[in-house]
Structures are given as C-alpha cells and as structure tokens.
Amino acid sequence: VIPCVVSQWSAWSGCAEPCKTTYRVRTRHVIQEPRNGAEACPALEERAGCVEYWTRQGTECKQSLIPALITTGGFGKARKKRAAADGKERAGYCVEFQLVAITPGCLHSHHSYTHWMRYLREGHTVCVECQHPALDSRNQHCSGDGTGSRKNQLLHWQAVGNPRCKGSWRRIRQLDTCSCPSVHSFLFI
C-alpha cells in the first residue's frame, strides 16, 4: 500500500472580492497518488470567511461593511460630561436597528460591566447613539452605523467588553435624538 502524500498548505489568498463578506482560499497539491488500496487524498483546498475593508485601488470600502462596536447607553452620560468640559461637544444622532441575530455569548456575561448585554434580544428595536468622540469629524458618521447600506441589508455589530457577544441587525432609520427606553439604548464606540 502506497499512501497519498500532499504538500504543505499554501499561504492564504486575499479575499475573493473586496468590500464584501466573502472567503479566502489556501491550497495544496498531491505529491504522490495513493496506490494499492490506500486511502484517498485529503482535501486540496480550504476556504475561510474574510472581509477586506480596502478596494483593489486602495480606497476605503463603504462604511456599512464595518461591524459597529457598541456599549451601554449609560456610558454616554459620562462621555457627554467630559466632552462638555473640554468644550468639544458636537451634535450627534441616533440610529434605530432591528436585532436579527445574537450570539449566545451575550447572555452568558457574568461581569458587572457586561450586564447590559442581557437586554439584547432578537427582534427588538434598539437605538444606538453616535456622539463625540466616536463621531468622525470628517464624514460626520460613526463607524458601522450602516450609512450607505441597502434597505434590509444585514449589518454586523459587536459588544465592547465581551468579544463573544455579537450579531447582526437591520438599519431602520436615523434620528436626530434617541427615543428608546434606556435598556435598549446603546452607544457607538
């Protein structure tokens, strides 16, 4: 029996397409074919999820692809006090999202600073405020706010303080002020 022998894996390719959630590839090749009833060769290609935030020409992709980083809205009160003291207070805005999917990691946070994650529930509408310093002064938006996304496009978010708490949501609308109950009010970081 002569077993199959394969090469080492190649380096990972870049993403198949820039500015989209897609995949990257690595390959290997057969050095020796199996003979005399030996087991077949293993897979010669592997794929892994991938997102590139830069086009092939080197310009930044649309903001809607970047996962939003969020924290509890309660953090915003302290942030506003600091910004007012610095004289850097800027008008912000709020975005309403409908939560579509949430990882189980959001429910299993036991630290006091992660209790707010328990209020994230599939189907609920949440408000996420964009304020200084997360508000980019050049484009007047927060990263991951869904500006430029298509209607009903799934967007991604991640909770700050627990990397296992993340999910997807759909942008409903942008508002000048937030009007959600405090337990459903969050903040872009």
Automatic annotation (TrEMBL):
Pfam families: SBSPON_C, TSP1_spondin. It comes from the Eukaryota. The keyword Glycoprotein applies. The keyword Calcium does not apply. InterPro entries: SBSPO, SBSPON_C, TSP1_rpt, TSP1_rpt_sf, TSP1_spondin_dom. Residues 88-182 form the SBSPON-like C-terminal domain. Keywords: Disulfide bond, Glycoprotein, Signal. Residues 4-51 form the Spondin-like TSP1 domain. SUPFAM superfamilies: TSP-1 type 1 repeat. Transmembrane segments: none annotated. This is SBSPO protein.
